[in-house]
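pasting input
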Amino acid sequence: MKLVIDESRCKGCNLCVLVCPYGIFGEGTELNSRGIVSPVLDRPERCTNCRLQALYGRMLCGVCQMICPDQAISWTDEKPFEPHRVEVEF
Amino acid sequence: MIAPDWFREDRLPHIYCTGCGNGTVINCTLAAVEEMGWKRNETAFVSGIGCSSRAPGYILTDSLHTTHGRALAFATGVKMAKPDLNVVVFTGDGDLAAIGGNHFIHACRRNVDMTVVCMNNQIYGMTGGQGSPTTPLGAFSTTTPYGASEPAFDLAELAVAAGANYVARWTSYHVKELTKAVVTGMQAPGLAFIEVRTQCPTNYGRHNKLRRVPDMIEYLRSHAMLVDKYNRLTAEGKPVPDGIFTVGELVRRSRPAMGVKR
């Protein structure tokens, strides 16, 4: 699973920065196209929900999604990792 | 987003200001509704006037957006006409405590079977930050520029005294506890009253040196005290710090209720 912030809904209140126990969210610095500084994600694959939601079959932690007043945080499915051959040219 | 099939996604993003706690309360209530497994055609949301009362407009069920302060009166009518409906009332402090105080105590006295979620942001947010009956002593607002000189209403204690069956108070910081409290309130027969202290950085925080959203949440978190701890401190005769409000389940009892589903 992949953690995503919906930029069309986020209003930049930084409540997720306050509550995340892993410190995944950080205060952003750049304005987006709507003129809002939305948080940036720091290595979101550390999120327990990203790693273990499929294994446990239920929501784990999920405090950022609960406290987000703008319903902007969600988890989406991503394609499973496929190993592929890398050719190195000399 | 939580409970995606209960949100009216074409209406989002909502009109609430940056960092408003009302969105969090909607999340928690809808998570509780989903946990209860209620069907959409047997649930009705009722609200009055104010910031908090915009909430049913973002929820995909039948809803009543009623006159100022009369949300509980309308909800009583809905419950009496159709006792099979699950009625949830969203209301604010200005709606419930100021203009609708009379309806509130009588709904508690009659113990009508519904869930009342009060988003208490301690100010009249929508009209420009006037002092409400729950503005704490000494807090600044546009109508109390030298600090509020009147003591504030304690809504949860008022509901306990008026006879509600389940009364709890949490803040918008305590999301998991709040969801559990709303679920318990929905399961309990009779009137369940859940007061939620929410942050209003735009109109309350701006006048009270809590302009940033995390400051306001930190204020709520540090001034909340579990009701067990409060009772222990007062029983031991130890001093309770100023400005503290109790959080937790204040009462759960089984007075005869009105309009319970047959």
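fyi Residues 69 and 96 of chain B are 6 Å apart (CA to CA).
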